[in-house]
Amino acid sequence: MNSVAYFERLARYNSWANGHVYDACATLSQRDLDAPRTAFFPSITATLNHLLVADSIWMSRLLGAPISMPLDTVLFAKFDDLRAARMTQDQAIIDFTSTLTPDVIASDLTYQSVTAGAYTMPRDLVLGHMFNHQTHHRGQLSNMILEAGAKPLEIDLIYYGRDHL
Known about the structure:
This protein is mainly alpha-helical. 62% of the residues lie in helices and 6% in strands. It has 7 helices and 2 strands; from the N terminus they run αααααββαα. The protein has helices at residues 3-25, 30-34, 44-62, 79-97, 102-105, 123-147, 157-164, and strands at 108-112, 118-122. The longest helix has 25 residues, at 123-147.
């Protein structure tokens, strides 16, 4: 598989996994979503917002129109609004990966960090980080969702592959 196809697959997986997370969250009350939890961000809602914020920042950099905001920004307090924004963002990521070329993936990206200085990094590493970052926090969400009483998530990449190859 070439690098373009790989990142296109990761974008589709990302959307699929996020769909499963949001389906599980939809079984919980807003109170459960906002309840204090033990994770990097203090609630399910805060973690879902962080993922949307981070993806918005990374996509803005990748598209050449950088934005910046604190990583704990709450873009949407209500679950339905957050879910709609997540679906829109996931489609934008899928659309973006469909425009990639091997030359673009092999190039560097210079960006200003939200928390530190300016960096120049290989674009393939940035793309890999964007998808890996989602996976990292979805793992935290999985635990918080279980703690809130919802069913376990089966969102490993291999599960996606079994259903979509």
